[in-house]
Amino acid sequence: MTDLRSAVAGERTDLADLLTALPSEDWDKPTLCDGWRVREVVAHITMPYRMSMPRFLLGMMKARGNFDRLADRQARHDAAQLSAAELTDCLRKNIHHPWKPPGGGYRGALSHDVIHGLDITVALGIDRQVPLDRMRHILDDIKPRQLKYFGVDLTGIQLRATDLDWTHGAGVPLTGTAQHLLLVLCGRTLPTGHLNGPPADRFTAEVVR
Questions:
Q1: Same domain, residue pair 61 and 158
Q2: What is the domain count for the chain?
Q3: Phi-psi region of 65 (alpha: psi -120 to 50; beta: other; left: phi over 0)
Q4: What is the pTM of this model?
Q5: Residues 118, 202: one domain?
Q6: With contact defined as beta carbons under 8 Å apart, do 123 and 208 qualify?
Q7: What distance in Å separates the CA atoms of residue 54 and residue 108, rounded to the nearest whole number?
Q8: What is the pLDDT of residues 80-132, one digit of tens each?
Q9: Residue 37 sits in the same domain as residue 134
Q10: What's the gap between Cα 69 and its chain centre?
Q11: What are the percentages of helix, strand and coil residues in the chain, rounded to 5?
Q12: Domain of residue 85, CATH code
């Protein structure tokens, strides 16, 4: 538990530092999250620190119980209301916040921050490497229900990390760094050049839109 809490705090610290140095024009560039710019992604990352349980429940009612609808509405609202500096400050002030996604524990909190951080850095072409011990925490906890949630079909494909002793599935190899394969597991489309193997074209695109 202590290791996980430290990993979460470390990831939030690294992301806050990266966002502090990010050029202002990059905040309006697209990410790997379809339809979200950098500012919407950061608004989403920090949403749990600003939203009380009563507000969350009311939002879920308005979204007719659909969390993805709530998350999208709230991210767009907060991104329009808060400046880049305010969003970054919110993240930095909550580095040790105890938030955990329902049923996900601190490993789920780490996954949330790592995945959305990669949504930003990979889309922007920033060569930021997530520490491998954090990647191991996440990849060792991948469950079939997560793949179903993201709608990922890996039938006949084996994911094979090039920087970590980790594989997933069986079949034709799709290779890449652990963090890029994590994005495949999460249903993201990556810019070309991040994955190798015959299945790579299924998971890549020339331009992030």
A1: no
A2: 2
A3: left
A4: 0.94
A5: no
A6: yes
A7: 22
A8: 999 999 999 999 999 999 999 987 899 999 999 999 999 999 999 999 999 99
A9: yes
A10: 17
A11: 60, 10, 35
A12: 1.20.120
